[in-house]
Amino acid sequence: MTDLVAVLVQLKKERAQLDKAITALSGAVRNNSGAPSRKGGSRLSVAARKRIGAAQRARWAAWKAKQNKVA
Question: CB–CB of 9/2 below 8 Å?
């Protein structure tokens, strides 16, 4: 019976150590997930969006003109 008590005490000690390790690793993973944060990321200016929009409209117009010639 004393052997079982000694085993139980040893297992409880190991479980306490594992709980501490799990807690430490969980904190490390939570703080350093590796995913980039989008807070304060770069955004396009209004002028840049207008230039990009105009360029895209020109590309679509050229594509549509080409489609009309083929048909």
Answer: no
